[in-house]
Write a sequence for this structure.
């Protein structure tokens, strides 16, 4: 349901030559402001100081403000039209008090707008905000995005793989093919809170954060927008625990990050991928090319942690390239997991600490590794030949085991 509020009581005392000035003075050109509000689960409560600044500017220019809530079914929670009341004769100080009061009211509406539907369709939310701004013929058009940048449904769904599994040019080609890139020409975007997540969403690695920001930068600039990311603002930890569920996105840390993960005591919430460059098997086999000792050396921090914490349990999930029959690849990928499991057990890890599952190539971690003619692209295929270590009690591990039990 769209709620439209006409904000009154603001009057013009004069027209300034400059644009978007403060101190109680009206401005020459209307500011049309669309805010994409990411008040949803798994996203940190976003710092709204930038929003307050721009809402104040919209009030001083007698513009308008629209708030779009980015949930699974994006909706416009509020549309605010700020009329120009002309020559009402208010002093600068009284006018400034009116503007501050209206800014506070609009900020309250923003803070109270929140997700109603499970999941997040962020691209549709941005498109809805763009439609609002594109309906305005004149004036300055600004869009504020207050969101982590993680979308879990719609045409841009990060739950279909793991963060960074699809290369940016491939994502862009897909969005263009589907005509899913919004029209953002003439719109300036300020994004606050990108990459700021909250449990149960695993924290993004530095590589994940670079990927996510670059992906959205590509999308928005291709759409015609000018984009600035406001990353100097502190996040807030509070969040409404009653917000609708948002699925977690798979985040995989490379083996090189294991020591850091262990030192930061985040091992029990982190998924680690052992790819072909780390644990290399003979073609079509569960026999290692590298020696057991080299594998033990690579994984020593993880092995040490599990040996010293016998209550900590993991799932080894094996994945393969798409060369072969899925049923056979499921068996092969599980055998490879068992090969790594034996190394852990020989090194002091208890057998009951590790479960294994073979996924073959039909899984959410799969990266498309064939060209349009069905030929294997080796550079991408090798990324699919992996063993993924997940905390056994994690949502992703539980989902994988549940899917196996159903099949």
């Amino acid at each position: 349901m769209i709620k439209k509020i006409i904000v009154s009581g603001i009057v013009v005392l004069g027209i300034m030559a400059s644009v978007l000035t403060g101190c109680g003075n009206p401005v020459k050109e209307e500011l049309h402001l669309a805010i994409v509000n990411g008040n949803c689960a798994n996203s940190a409560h976003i710092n709204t100081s930038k929003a307050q600044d721009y809402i104040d500017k919209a009030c001083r220019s007698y513009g308008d403000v629209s708030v779009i809530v980015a949930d699974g079914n994006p909706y416009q929670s509020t549309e605010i039209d700020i009329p120009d009341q002309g020559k009402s004769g208010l002093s600068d100080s009284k006018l400034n008090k009116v503007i501050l009061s209206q800014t506070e009211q609009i900020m309250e509406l923003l803070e109270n707008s929140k997700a109603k539907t499970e999941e997040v369709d962020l691209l549709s939310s941005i498109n809805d905000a763009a439609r609002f701004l594109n309906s305005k013929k004149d004036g300055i058009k600004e869009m504020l995005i207050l969101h982590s940048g993680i979308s879990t449904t719609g045409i841009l769904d990060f739950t279909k793989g793991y963060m960074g599994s699809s290369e940016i040019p491939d994502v862009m080609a897909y969005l263009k093919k589907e005509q899913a890139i919004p029209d953002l020409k003439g719109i300036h975007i300020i994004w606050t809170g990108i990459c700021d997540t909250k449990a149960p969403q695993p924290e993004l690695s530095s590589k994940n954060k670079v990927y996510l920001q670059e992906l959205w930068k590509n999308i928005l600039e291709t759409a015609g927008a000018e984009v600035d990311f406001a990353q100097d603002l502190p996040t807030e930890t509070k969040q409404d625990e009653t917000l609708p569920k948002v699925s977690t996105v798979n985040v995989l840390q490379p083996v090189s990050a294991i020591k850091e993960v262990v030192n930061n005591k985040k091992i029990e919430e982190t998924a680690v991928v052992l790819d072909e460059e780390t644990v290399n098997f003979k073609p079509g086999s569960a026999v290692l090319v590298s020696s057991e000792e080299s594998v033990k050396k690579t994984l020593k921090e993880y092995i040490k942690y599990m040996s010293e914490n016998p209550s900590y349990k993991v799932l080894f999930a094996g994945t393969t390239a798409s060369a072969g029959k899925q049923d056979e690849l499921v068996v092969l990928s599980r055998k490879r997991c068992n090969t790594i499991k034996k190394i852990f057990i020989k090194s002091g890890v208890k057998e009951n600490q590790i479960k294994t599952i073979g996924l073959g190539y039909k899984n959410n971690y799969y990266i498309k590794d064939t060209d349009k003619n069905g030929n294997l692209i080796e550079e991408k295929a090798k990324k699919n030949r992996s063993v993924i270590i997940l905390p056994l009690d994690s949502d992703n591990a539980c989902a994988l085991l549940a899917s196996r039990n159903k099949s």
Remarks:
- Residues 1-24 have pLDDT under 50 and may be disordered.
- Residues 147 and 193 are 5 Å apart (CA to CA).
- The first strand starts at residue 4 and ends at 6.
- The radius of gyration is 26 Å.
